[in-house]
Every structure is written in C-alpha cells, then in structure tokens.
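Is this the right way to post structure tokens for a design question? Let me know if I should format differently. Anyway, here goes:
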C-alpha cells in the first residue's frame, strides 16, 4: 500500500495501536463506504466530500430519486476515488421502499474486481 492508513471502521488493535487495513483492497472498500455514507458538508475541511446515501431515507423512492442518486454517486466516485478505482458498473434502482445501489469496480493498483451493494429503506418520515 502507498502510505499508512487506518482501518475502517476505526478501531484500536490488540497491541494498543490504531488498527490498519489488511490490504489495499480492504482500504479501498473502506474508502468507498465512507464516501457513499458521508453527507456533503459533514466534513468541515472537505465540504464537498460525500455521496449522501444516508439522507435518502427522507426522499421518495422512485426512478427520479434513483437517477439522481446514480448521478451524484458517479460524480463523487470519479472526483474522490478516480485515482484508486475504475467504476465498471453502477446501478441504482428503486424497488418498493428500498433503494438498491450496486457498484462493481476494479482497484487500479491491483487490477482486482470487487463489488459493493447497499440497500436503504427510503420514503419513511
């Protein structure tokens, strides 16, 4: 891995030090999760950082919302992780009260293809 990284979620290892990710692939997966679940404005020194999936619980669950989420996620993945991953497929679908996000990506440094899936209940007030 290039540089030192903290594990996600943050934790202290058995030796009392900050735990590190086991591999670059684990670190990149953690970065993706952080990006998707962080709301814009949540980080004071990076106000544009974040995909905002957690805020989607207050939106209607329809094709318009799914399209908006896909656009925001695609832009943020490119902006913040474009040097680490190649997005191979990003699908966002609205199914009843669930918003599904399927991301297939390859880690540039290793060439390995990975997949992340999120499901979020939406439309609840």
């Amino acid at each position: 891995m290039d540089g030192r990284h903290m594990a996600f979620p943050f934790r202290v290892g058995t030796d009392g030090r900050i735990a590190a990710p086991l591999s670059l692939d684990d670190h990149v997966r953690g970065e993706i999760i952080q990006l998707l679940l962080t709301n814009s404005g949540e980080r004071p020194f990076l106000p544009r950082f974040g995909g905002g999936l957690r805020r989607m619980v207050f939106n209607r669950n329809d094709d318009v919302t799914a399209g908006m989420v896909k656009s925001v996620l695609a832009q943020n993945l490119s902006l913040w992780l474009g040097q680490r991953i190649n997005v191979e497929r990003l699908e966002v679908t609205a199914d009843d009260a669930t918003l599904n996000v399927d991301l297939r990506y390859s880690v540039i440094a290793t060439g390995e293809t990975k997949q992340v899936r999120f499901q979020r209940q939406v439309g609840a007030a």
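Format looks fine. Someone answered above. Worth noting: The mean pLDDT is 84. DSSP finds two helices and three strands in the chain.
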